[in-house]
Amino acid sequence: MATHEVTFPVTDPAEILKLRAGDEVVVQGHIIGIRDRTQIRIFDQGIEPPMDLTGAFLLHTAPGVRKLGPGRYEKVCIGTTTSARMVRFTEGLGERYGVRGICGKGGFPDEAIDPMRRLGMVYFAIVGGAAALETTQIEEIEEVAWEELMPECLWKFRVKDFGPLTVGIDAHGNSLYRDVQERARKKLEDIYARL
Amino acid sequence: MSVIATDLSQAVEDAAAHLYVWALRDIPQDLRDALATARDRETSTTGKRVLETIHRNVEIADDQGNLVCQDTGIAVYYCRVGEGFPLHPARIYEALRDGTERATVEHPLRSNTVHTLTRENTGQNVGFRVPIVHWDFVPDWDGLDVKCVPKGSGSENMSFLKMCVPADGVRGIKEFVLDSIVGAGGKPCPPGIVGVGVGGSADYAMHLAKEAIARPVGTTNPDPEVAKLERELYELLNETGIGPMGLGGDVTVLACHVEHADTHMTLNPVAVNYQCWAARRASAHVAADGAISYERDV
User: Fold this and answer.
1) Cβ atoms < 10 Å from Cβ of A114
2) 8 Å CB contact of A133 and B171
3) What share of chain A is helix, strand, coil (3-state, %, to 5)?
4) What is the pLDDT of residues B169-195, one digit of tens each?
């Protein structure tokens, strides 16, 4: 398993294609915070996001913040939420907006594997609950859109050494989550046989 | 009498405000020990990476006085009220709600509470029937014990209930718990505490499962039959290979706690409630004169 450093947004698809399920990744540059209500607004209500998502790295988050002034916030505690609830937006994010990385915790179900392969996207697994650490890796909240959805706004963060992340699903059709589930289901058959 | 009641309201409010933030910042020692043991035991590369990161995170939360996890959860309190405690539970509830709200504003904490249909945020982690408070009443005593268990949604979403039939037996209970935890995968932030409630009624089984996750790691059920089930489930769950954050590995759960109640001859309810690795809890004792002492468990 290799270790990589990737700067987002990416412009070269090779940066994504080199990543393999299980690899360790540290991210630099800019990332976009997004959550349930943000994506419901984009896809179900058909409202265009007021930020460029081309080549972007999306983080499933609803940060804890302190308001400094109009449109200005400082971080208090920023962590990551469960991704599975938002899997149905994967294809649209890749196809319509050119998103390249989605980061969350707990993984995506198998329905994400095919769109991620076709569209050259990667799912990054973060350590859920490790928000104190994550907060130190977010240097600044640079932009906030849709403040009325607080805390489920569209956030732009500048990050430094964001991670360690694990490639959970790569752009080649591999998923750690599918592998783990397959092995666990087999194991359950053994266990049930001896109960 | 009314002066005492007013002071006591303030004392309970202060206790709630302190407990909520304390629980969120500083995870219990029993959990830290269990996570350290898990880190030493884990052999997979991804699992070790996750458990190392958890360790770093807990250290940073200590050093910076920050919250361990951003999910400030839904505030759940367990109250044991002495029959001689000079503040009525109706007022205790108000004080717990006010303390929760005050902590949320002062820290500030992320506010999570929304109307369940409109999804509009209802304020500062308070709302209709929120916080959630469970009550026990104690005869021949004039104190109040409060335990705060902020419950994150990632783990709470991984709650499961099955009305097994008597013929399913203990085997049916085991299969349901195993199936639930494998199905949950990485979503509830493993390795955590699996709480299982068996017996009673449907609602009471889930109540017991929630009580089970609020117990310290290392405690066992006093009933030897139930304690045996706890040990067996713990071993079996760690055979599944789900691993830290569901990425595969040796350590899937830190503990499995089972609470039980007697039940109807035709019932065999089993409820599963998960608590993430950041299994937060903190307690206080409020004396009849308003003096507060903070302890991890009371």
Assistant:
1) 12
2) no
3) 35, 35, 30
4) 999 999 999 999 999 999 999 999 999
The one-letter code for the residue type at A105 is K
Domains located in chain B, CATH noted: 2-25+68-152+279-295 (3.30.1330), 154-275 (no CATH)
Chain A residues whose CB is inside 8 A of the B68 CB are: 129, 131-132
Find the largest Cα–Cα distance for chain A.
Answer: 63
Q: Can you name the residues that pair with B298 across neighbouring β-strands?
A: none
Rounded Cα distance between B103 and B257, Å, is 30
Q: Does domain A3-194 have CATH number 3.20.130.10?
A: yes
Which has the closest alpha carbon to B49: B238, B252, B245, B276? B245
Check A106 against B187: CB less than 8 A apart.
Answer: yes
Q: How high is the ipTM of this complex?
A: 0.94
Structure confidence by residue, pLDDT tens digits, B19-63: 999 999 999 999 999 999 999 999 999 999 999 999 999 999 999
Q: Which residues contact B67 (CB under 8 A, 6 or more apart)?
A: A64, A76, A77, A131, A132, B24, B25, B61, B109
Question: Residue B45: its chain A contacts at CB < 8 A?
Answer: 1, 22
Please report, as a single letter, which amino acid is at residue B166.
P
